[in-house]
Amino acid sequence: MAGPDPWWDGPVSLDLHPVRPAVAVPVSAPDVPAAIAATVRAREAGAEVVEWRLDALGSDGSEGSGGRLATADLLAAVAQLPALRAEGGLPVLATYRSLLEGGPGGLDDDGYHDLLAALVAVGADAIDVELTRGEEVVTGPVRLARDAGVAVVGSSHDFGGTPDDLDVRFAELARRGSDVLKVATTPDSDADVLRLLTSAVRARTALNRVVLPVAMGRLGVLSRVGGALWRAPLTFARLGEGSAPGQLDVRAAAQVLDLLGEAAR
């Protein structure tokens, strides 16, 4: 059942829920078969999008042990993305979280550029593009994504607090060509959460872009379930262990989003 207006006006390649933010489950697996199996479990639990965390490939199961695969090995795994989508049955947001953005990924700029370009070439539904990478690194892949109709989720993460330059981060992500502006912070107070959400709503209006504010941890639960108010495209939820602090269980997230989405229509 569609809402009164299109829920999300980004590229049509990302098939999202028609009346509320979609539930996206991050999948961190050491190899492609394990990622496919996890995607199937996520779909059966109610996930509507899978975030394939490529930085987890090659991990040994211990915390922070991912990010070790060489570029050639990552590209070989990326070539199997169509199989993951077909067998998993969900749209794929492909993410490689680098050290500077709080992940384990150690790819250099050349490798990161080649990875993004390969993801576009194999038909990822969306790609995550990090703000900390130089503009010269990401401009080419972003242009390729736009030509191919692949959604670009520009992302910025702060695991140490809530920075003062929130408006600047949203604006820079938009200037670089992102379709979705994701800014994730770690609040120390309710006021920090509200400051992030206020900046996101301001960016949505001023920049005419889709925003995805994420306040991590217990304090930030409103940012994960309240997206119907600022028309967020998705929210991240967990199946088992999450990929970031404060993620709700996928089933609980879907239930809350259904209730709030209906109320916000």
UniProtKB/TrEMBL annotation:
CDD domains: DHQase_I. One of its GO terms (biological process) is 3,4-dihydroxybenzoate biosynthetic process. It catalyses: 3-dehydroquinate = 3-dehydroshikimate + H2O. Its EC number is 4.2.1.10. It is an enzyme of class 4 (lyase). GO terms for molecular function: 3-dehydroquinate dehydratase activity. InterPro entries: Aldolase_TIM (IPR013785), DHquinase_I (IPR001381), Type-I_3-dehydroquinase (IPR050146). Keywords: Lyase, Schiff base. This is 3-dehydroquinate dehydratase. The lineage of its organism: Bacteria, Bacillati, Actinomycetota, Actinomycetes, Micrococcales.
